[in-house]
Design brief:
single chain, alpha+beta, elongated
Length: 420
């Protein structure tokens, strides 16, 4: 009995605990946020100067380049044009950076309801918006225990930056490097910087919706069983790598990284990879077999620097720009080509083989072979039009060349049989 009990306990220990997996996912999320916050200063500095439009408030010599953390979510993969080597997608980009000089703790006025001598409907209890702002501004000099005021625990933009945040505060000036056209981002009708709490630290955050058309290098050697990496390149058109450093969030950096160890089974590992994919791609954009020609199978990110030689001729100027690459791996659905082209082509080749057992007349055999040859050419045409005019031999090219070679050999055999 003891042996049986020991065996049961051992078998129970080996089974994966989904509760532990959920706890580990929650802990990994906390670790991701902590890693992002580590790129900023330790705490909020109330006396810090604003960065400014010309970055005068950020000394790059002492503090290094300013860190901008990017995070992205793919809403939809709209179109992939393999012939023009372009793709169009819809993605949400979020940027976080610190600028303590432009924000301050939010202060609100207590309503004073229920106090003696104050009516909830009296005109004296209704304070104007200017009085509230005046009280909030004087909180810093008078202290936090000001009567009838309290801190909400949130942070807001200072008065000087509320009306025109984009025109008065620093901006990383993010652009798409490999976009076909210069398209402005969609900011959901709002041009205001938001202030969010990241791991207990206030940061400036800005969310934008892009729907760009980008150029990318495609590989066609394994067509129609090919996989292609669609790359979206983010950079700045104003600040070089000595001034700004674009970093991806730890959440995206951890995708594809086997940080959970190698002791998991393949099924659990596959579930984890799918969960990572769902957190970066909308379910409607993933597609699937039979739903779209391309299916998103993986998303990963990279950070790089682009060297610009023309910038090096200026004194004390860096000839490199920081870039952040969002790499989307897509896989083509080959079943459409196999069902509509491959299966029909193989049936035609079977008919060519059966023609050997038919009429011995040479004209009949040549007519059958010629008809099959024209049918294969008509099947090969649409696939050739879908590929760019590049000197790359694909799997489909090899397959069609094999079929045409068999047809040519069959006609030679017919001619030799007739001459003998």
């Amino acid at each position: 009995n003891n042996k049986m009990g020991m065996g049961r306990r051992l078998s129970f220990v080996k089974r994966p605990s989904y509760a532990n997996m959920n706890n580990s996912c929650a802990q990994s999320l906390v670790n991701h946020v902590n890693s992002d916050v580590a790129e900023f200063s330790d705490r909020y500095d109330n006396d810090a100067p604003p960065v400014g439009l010309d970055m005068a408030g950020h000394d790059t010599f002492l503090m290094g380049p300013k860190a901008v953390i990017l995070d992205s979510f793919i809403v939809d993969l709209l179109h992939v044009d393999t012939s023009a080597q372009t793709f169009r997608l819809k993605l949400l980009l979020n940027m976080d950076w610190e600028d303590d000089g432009t924000i301050e703790p939010e202060v609100k006025y207590k309503r004073g309801l229920g106090r003696k001598g104050i009516s909830s409907r009296s005109d004296d209890s209704v304070l104007s918006e200017s009085v509230i702002h005046t009280t909030a501004r004087t909180l810093k000099s008078m202290g936090s225990n000001v009567e009838n005021t309290y801190k909400t625990g949130k942070y807001v933009l200072k008065k000087d930056y509320i009306e025109d945040p984009l025109g008065t505060t620093w901006n990383p000036e993010v652009v798409l490097v490999n976009a076909v056209g210069d398209e402005d981002p969609i900011e959901a009708g709002s041009k205001l910087h938001s202030i969010a709490m990241l791991g207990g630290r206030p940061v400036i955050t800005r969310s934008m919706l892009y729907q760009p058309e980008c150029r990318c290098k495609f590989s066609f050697a394994n067509f129609p069983f090919d996989e292609t990496e669609l790359v979206v390149k983010f950079s700045s058109n104003k600040w070089n790598s000595e001034q700004v450093n674009f970093l991806w969030s730890e959440r995206l950096n951890s995708i594809g990284r086997e940080s959970w160890g190698g002791n998991l089974t393949s099924s659990i590992r596959l579930k984890k990879e799918k969960s990572y994919l769902k957190r970066s791609v909308d379910n409607n954009a993933v597609g699937g077999v039979g739903l779209s020609e391309f299916e998103i199978v993986k998303v990963r990110v990279e950070s790089d620097e682009k060297d610009v030689n023309s910038m090096q001729r200026y004194d004390n100027a860096e000839g490199a720009f920081s870039e952040a690459h969002l790499i989307i791996t897509v896989r083509r659905d080959p079943y459409s080509y196999l069902l509509r082209v491959g299966s029909v082509g193989e049936l035609l080749m079977i008919l060519e083989v059966l023609s050997f057992f038919g009429s011995p007349d040479l004209s009949d055999r040549f007519s059958i072979s010629g008809t099959i040859f024209l049918a294969l050419v008509s099947l090969y045409g649409p696939m050739a039009d879908a590929l760019p005019k590049v000197s790359v031999v694909t799997r489909v090219d090899k397959w069609n060349l094999y079929n045409f070679s068999l047809l040519f050999a069959s006609n030679v055999e017919n001619l030799l049989a007739f001459m003998v």
